[in-house]
Design brief:
Low-confidence stretches: 1-14
Structural class: mainly alpha
Number of domains: 2
Number of strands: 0
Length: 365
C-alpha cells in the first residue's frame, strides 16, 4: 500500500472530527463496493460499449426524448459490436444496455461528489489533520484517474473489436480494488491507539507472509480482470479437471504463442486464475498455522477470517464456472472479491501493528 500502516497523528484540536471523517471514508468504501458490482453487471450484460462518447459533465444527462434516443442508437450502430454482434437490435434492447452503462458512469460521478463535497466541508471547517491531507488528495486523484482509465478501456472497443481490451479492463478493475483498499486503509488508520493486548507479538517471517498475501491477492484480482475481459469463464466449465486434465495441454503453445498466452490465451488465462486461487488459499492456511490457530489476539482472529473468506470465494468461483457464469454468479463473485480484499487489508494492518508492537517491546527490553 502507498499509505502508512500507523495511526495518523491527530492534533487534539481536530481529534473530535476524525470519527466523522472515518465514517465518510467508510461510506466511500461502501459506494465503491456497490460500484464494483454494477460494473460487473454492466460487463456481463455487454452494456459497456453502448455509450460511445466520454462527456464527464454533459454525459450525466441521459436521452430525454425519442430523437435523442435515436441519435444515441445511431452512434452505437457505427461501432463493430453492433455491426458484427448485435446487428438488428431493437431500440428497446439498446435502451436496456444503455441504461446499465449510463448507471455505471452516473454512479462513478456520484462517488466523486460524495467524496468531494464532504472533503471541501471538512477542509473549510479546518477539521482535517494536516498529516491526512496528502492521503485524501491522493485518493481523490486516484478517483479521477479511474474515470480516465474507464474511458481508455471503453475506447479500445469502439473500433476493430467487438469488446474492450482485456488488458485495459484488468487495469480498470484492479485500480477500483486498489482505491477501495487504500480508502479503507486510511479510514482504519484514523482509529485511536488500541490496547496492546489486542495484538500478538509476531516474528518478521509471519509479518512478511501477511504482506505477501495482500500482494498475491492483487495479482489474483488482475488475473480475474483478464478472465472477465476474455470471457474465459464461459469455457472449460469443469472442475477440478480442465479440458480433461488438471494441467491441460497447449497452455503456452497455442496462439498467440509464448508468454503472451498468459494474457491472451483463454485456456491459459483461466488456468492461471485457478492456480493463483489455489496458491492463495494454501498460503492463507500456512499463515494461519504460522500465527498459531489457538491464539485469540486480533491478528490471529483476522487470519482465521482470511482463510474463511478465501474459501467462500473459491466456492463461489467454482459454482460460477460450472454454471458458465450466469449473471447472478458473476456479479456475486466480483462483489465478494471486495469483501475478501477488505478482510485482507484489515489483517495486513493488524499484522503491521503487531509487528510495530513487537519491535517496540524489543527496544524497551
Amino acid at each position: 500500500m502507498t499509505v502508512s500502516a500507523q495511526t495518523t497523528a491527530i492534533p487534539d484540536a481536530a481529534e473530535h472530527n476524525t470519527g466523522a471523517i472515518r465514517l465518510w471514508l467508510y461510506l466511500i468504501c461502501f459506494l465503491i463496493f456497490i460500484m464494483v458490482i454494477i460494473g460487473g453487471v454492466t460487463r456481463l450484460t455487454d452494456s459497456g460499449l453502448s455509450i460511445t462518447e466520454w462527456k464527464p459533465l454533459l454525459g450525466a444527462i441521459p436521452p430525454w426524448n425519442e430523437a435523442n434516443w435515436l441519435q444515441e442508437f445511431e452512434k452505437y450502430r457505427q461501432i463493430p459490436e453492433y455491426q458484427l454482434q448485435n446487428k438488428g437490435m431493437s431500440l428497446a434492447e439498446f435502451q436496456f444496455i444503455y441504461w446499465w452503462e449510463w448507471g455505471h458512469r452516473f454512479f462513478g460521478r456520484l462517488i466523486g461528489l460524495v467524496y468531494l463535497l464532504p472533503f471541501v466541508w471538512f477542509a473549510w471547517r479546518k477539521a482535517i489533520p494536516k498529516p491526512l491531507y496528502p492521503k485524501l488528495l491522493i485518493l481523490f486523484a486516484l478517483g479521477g484517474l479511474q474515470g480516465f482509465v474507464g474511458w481508455w478501456m471503453v475506447f479500445s472497443g469502439l473500433s476493430e473489436r467487438v469488446d474492450v481490451s482485456q488488458y485495459r479492463l484488468a487495469v480498470h478493475l484492479t485500480l477500483a480494488f486498489f482505491i477501495f483498499a487504500a480508502t479503507l486503509w486510511v479510514a482504519r488508520g484514523l482509529r485511536g491507539p488500541a490496547s496492546t493486548q489486542r495484538y500478538q507479538y509476531v516474528s518478521g517471517g509471519v509479518l512478511l507472509v501477511s504482506q505477501l498475501l495482500l500482494i498475491l491477492l492483487f495479482l489474483q484480482l488482475f488475473a480475474g480482470g483478464l478472465v472477465a475481459g476474455l470471457d474465459a469463464g464461459m469455457t472449460y466449465n469443469t472442475w477440478p479437471l480442465m479440458d480433461g486434465s488438471f494441467i491441460p495441454s497447449g497452455l503456452l503453445n497455442d496462439a498467440p504463442g509464448g508468454w503472451l498466452n498468459l494474457f491472451e490465451n483463454i485456456q491459459t488465462v483461466q488456468f492461471t486464475h485457478r492456480m493463483v486461487a489455489y496458491l492463495l488459499l494454501a498460503l492463507a492456511v500456512f499463515h494461519l498455522f504460522q500465527i498459531g490457530f489457538a491464539k485469540t489476539g486480533i491478528a490471529g482472529t483476522t487470519a482465521k477470517i482470511v482463510v474463511l473468506v478465501v474459501s467462500i470465494q473459491a466456492v463461489i468461483g467454482i459454482a460460477a464456472l460450472l454454471l458458465a457464469v450466469p449473471l447472478w454468479a458473476g456479479a456475486l463473485h466480483q462483489g465478494f472479491a471486495v469483501i475478501v480484499l477488505a478482510v485482507f487489508v484489515m489483517h495486513s494492518q493488524n499484522m503491521r501493528r503487531a509487528g510495530a508492537e513487537t519491535a517496540a517491546a524489543r527496544r524497551a527490553s
